Amino acid sequence: MTLTQTLFEALDAVPLVDPHSHINPRWATSDTIADLLGYHYYTELAHSAGMPRSRIEEPDITPHEKVARLFEYLHHINHSVQWSWFLELSNDLFGFQAESIDTSNWQKLYDLALAKMSQPSWEDEVLRKSNVQRIFLTNDFDDPLDDFDTYRYVPCLRTDDLVFHLALPQTRERLAKATGIQVANLKDLQDAIGSLFAHFVKYQVRACAISLPPWFSPTAIAVDDASAQAAFQRLLASQSVSQSDREIVAYWVFWRLAEFCNDMHLPFDLMIGVNRKVYPEGVFQGQDLYDSRWSMIQYAELLNAFPKVKFPVSVLASVSNQELVDYAWIFPNVIANGHWWYSNTPTFIQHDLRARIDAIPRNKIIGYYSDAYKLEFILPKYKMFKRILANVLAESIVIERRLSESFAIDLGTQILRGNVDSIFFSQE
Length: 428
Fold this sequence. Notes:
The chain starts with a helix and ends with a helix. By secondary structure, the chain is α/β, with parallel strands linked by helices. The chain is globular and about 65 Å long. About 50% of the residues lie in helices and about 10% in strands. Helix 11 crosses helix 13, helix 15 runs parallel beside helix 16 and helix 16 crosses helix 17. The longest helix is centred in the C-terminal third of the chain and has 23 residues. It has a domain of about 90 residues: uronate isomerase, domain 2, chain A. The strands form three sheets. A six-stranded parallel sheet has the order 4-5-6-9-10-11. The protein has a three-stranded parallel sheet with strand order 1-2-3. Strands 7-8 form a two-stranded antiparallel ribbon.
């Protein structure tokens, strides 16, 4: 085998903990390949290639018909890395042995996958073939958490609604139902947030997480309690809330979240840079893009204020990677986390990963997370990353720096798995 193949084989044997996904633990695997091809990567690319949104999202369309329609356009992306994921999972999980999947053979795949997915052991089989032991979730703040295995499916408190959507009456109603606290002032709100954290800690939560827009600049100094209380009262009194009041409340809540993470020794995952609804005519989940008009300097006060909180940071675009690398270079509590969304293609992963390995302490690189909505996608996405990681290690560590294969394997294993354990499970 080549050096890269040797390193890949070693890394491929490492049992995985996936530190960020959108898996529903109550419906973790797919029912048909329509669930797989309904992943936004495929619907948005089919739409980009010319497929009308109405044909993709027609109400009450059957899974079989949806797949048939998508295959009228999917040949336009059969060169892409996204399509390679689908081809690889079809080969490795369903045993579909073909070099391509198109209008001539998708029906055979559909039936083969349906038979596999119908088996009671399918979830366990997917995890075994993917070599996955544990998977982090994205849990709404009012998730009861009491009806799934929280060892296999690790709770993660997603806080976007608390920070950005408290002006919506339905958000406050959900909060009251989840905590038993009718929020009438900031003290009530802080008590309610504390109740949520206590609930999640009871069910072995291992992180708090949030997706942040480019304009967000969290600060404690600029948002004193008096200003926040006045803004919050106006928010409670009317749905016609000013953007200024929304931002004041958002900053106040965000700072409280950081305080609770500090008190409860939880990492706070920051996913920075997404600009929502850039393309409102796009398909579901195919409307958002990155925005480069932000900087890590917007988070400097936060990072300085909470030196004991670990901040795994994901950036939406590769153009932000150098700044993330440099902040992780200086700040002990900044961790480079995965390759998110539009950066999740081999060209950007290789570039960004190489930069991180070149400059960041090895205990502060979380190599990858799947971001998957269905278990089947963990296998091909991680395979892609492991191939890239093996190639980067071969070139930069073994060939250029003249270190041993065993050194490269040890480093790769730490990036792939070891740092996930030390950053998220050090309290176990």
